[in-house]
Amino acid sequence: MSELSHDFHSLSQSKHRASGVDTDIMSVSVMEGDSVTLHTGVETNQQERIRWYFNDTRIAKISGDLSKICTDVQCNGDTERFRDRLKLDHQTGSLTIMNITNTDSGLYKLLINSSNFNNENSFSVTVHGESCLKGTLSVNKGEPVTLDPVLKNPNGLKTWYFNDTLIAEITGDLRKICTDVQYKERFRDRLKLKLDHQTGSLSIMNIRNTDSGLYKLLISNSNFDTEKIFSVIVDGESAVIFVLTCMLIYIEYIDDLIKNKCTVKVECVGLDIN
C-alpha cells in the first residue's frame, strides 16, 4: 500500500437544494481503523422517519414513534458487511461506523421524512491508509513525548483529557492549556501544544512515572466526531505508548469506554505553545 500524506482535508461540503427537499453532499476522509459518526443534525420525534443507506442498500432506520429501530443485518437479511460495527443514536438518528475499513468507502445516504419537511443528505466516505493502531513507542524517561493524532482536522474543536480531566484544548486559532486542581503540580510548565494547531498534537516535557494513564483527544465538528486514545505507561527508564482509536458521538460516551464518570472542575492556567 502506498504511503499517503497525512495532510488530508477532513471535511469538504457542498449543498444543493431542490423543490421541497434539502440535499447536502459531504466528503469525509478518515484513516482505516478509525470510527466515524455521520450526524443528522436533528432531534428525532414522533413525526420523523430516518433511514440510512450504503450504496443504495438500507443499513439502518428509525421509525417515527421509535417502535422500529434496526441496523445492518436486522434491516436487510442479505447485508452483513457492517455486522456489529454500526451504532444508531436513538435521539438524533446519527450513524456511527466503528473500526472502519477500506471496503466501507462509498456513498452513505440519509433520508429524513416528516410531515413538515423532507431532508436528504449524502456522505461520500473515503478510507485512507492503514489502521492508526501503531503498536508501541518507547522513549527514555525524562525526555519529551508527543501524542500525535495523525489525521488533521482544521475546522474541529480539539480537546485533550488525562484520566477524564481536561488538560488542553484548541478552538480555531485559540490555544490554551487547562488543568484540574489535582494536576496543577503534575503538569506545571511541562505541557505544550504543537504550533501546528491543525494537528492538535500534545507534547509532555520531561515525562515522569506519575504521567502514566489515559490521554484522550476528542475532535468535534458539526458533521462528525472522532476520538483517539493514547495509553501511556512509564516504567523505569522508558515510556510505552499504546495508541487506540475509536469514534464517539458525545463526550458522555467516554464513560462506557473508561468505566469512570467524568465530572471534574476545570481551571485554566498558563499557556505555552513554543
Automatic annotation (TrEMBL):
Ranges where the Immunoglobulin domain occurs: 25-128, 134-235
Query: What Pfam families is this protein classified in?
Result: V-set
Q: PANTHER family under this entry? A: CD48 ANTIGEN-RELATED, LFA-3
Question: What name is this protein filed under?
Answer: Immunoglobulin domain-containing protein
